[in-house]
């Protein structure tokens, strides 16, 4: 039985995803996963293997979910209004991260050298997605919609850093209270800021506001 089949593997996978997202790979033990799933360690090992194997499964599933959402968003990218299409692409990515906060949390732990002995995930999962986005935006550069001097790869990383940071940590308001993606006013304000930042970074024509 695999995690996708339901039952105990699915319960284990859900618990592991939540713990890896909250504590990171290095901060999570198999005992914690078993306790969160309401099972013993032997049952966890029987269904999914050790912690490393479970982590790889969690990251693979996170990647597949992100890739499916990105493929759908990129399929809508060509349009009569290329500027509006680019902004819609960023909205789609932001909405995905807000709806699936565990996924940016998993990757942010890796940015902080979590699971540093597992080195292949960025090359296997992240780089192809970044390349897919930059490749999809090249026609807009050739058409003069995006300024040719823009470093598209770094522009996309700027969006990733910003969106992941907001989805994971939110922002502090004037009273020092943390406002996250669940706060509609904070999300609306961040979305407007993200649009303005991207519009100016890519030197897109027109007024973004």
TrEMBL record:
Q: Which UniProt keywords apply?
A: DNA-binding
Extract the SUPFAM superfamilies matched here.
Homeodomain-like (SSF46689), Tetracyclin repressor-like, C-terminal domain (SSF48498)
Q: Could you tell me what this protein is called? A: TetR/AcrR family transcriptional regulator
Domain of life, source organism: Bacteria
Sequence ranges assigned to domain HTH tetR-type in this UniProt record: 6-66
Gene3D superfamilies this protein is in? Answer: Homeodomain-like, Tetracycline Repressor, domain 2
Please give the DNA-binding region boundaries: 29-48
**Family matches, as InterPro entries:** DNA-bd_HTH_TetR-type_CS, Homeodomain-like_sf, HTH-type_TetR-like_transc_reg, HTH_TetR, Tet_transcr_reg_TetR-rel_C_sf
């Amino acid at each position: 039985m695999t995690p996708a089949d339901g039952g105990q593997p699915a319960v284990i996978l859900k618990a592991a995803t939540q713990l890896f997202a909250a504590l990171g790979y290095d901060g999570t033990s198999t005992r914690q996963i078993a306790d969160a799933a309401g099972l013993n360690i032997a049952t966890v090992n029987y269904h999914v293997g050790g912690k490393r194997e479970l982590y790889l499964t969690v990251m693979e599933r996170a990647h597949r979910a992100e890739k499916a959402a990105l493929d759908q968003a990129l399929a809508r990218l060509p349009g009569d209004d290329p500027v509006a299409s680019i902004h819609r692409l960023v909205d789609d990515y932001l909405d995905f991260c807000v709806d699936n906060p565990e996924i940016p949390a998993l990757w942010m732990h890796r940015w902080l050298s979590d699971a540093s002995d597992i080195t292949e995930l960025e090359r296997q999962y992240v780089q192809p997605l970044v390349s897919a986005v930059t490749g999809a935006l090249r026609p807009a550069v050739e058409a003069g919609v995006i300024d040719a001097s823009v470093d598209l790869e770094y522009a996309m990383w700027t969006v990733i850093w910003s969106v992941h940071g907001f989805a994971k940590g939110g922002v502090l308001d004037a009273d020092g209270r943390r406002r996250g993606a669940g706060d509609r006013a904070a999300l609306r304000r961040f979305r407007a800021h993200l649009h303005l930042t991207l519009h100016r970074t890519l030197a897109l024509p027109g007024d973004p506001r």
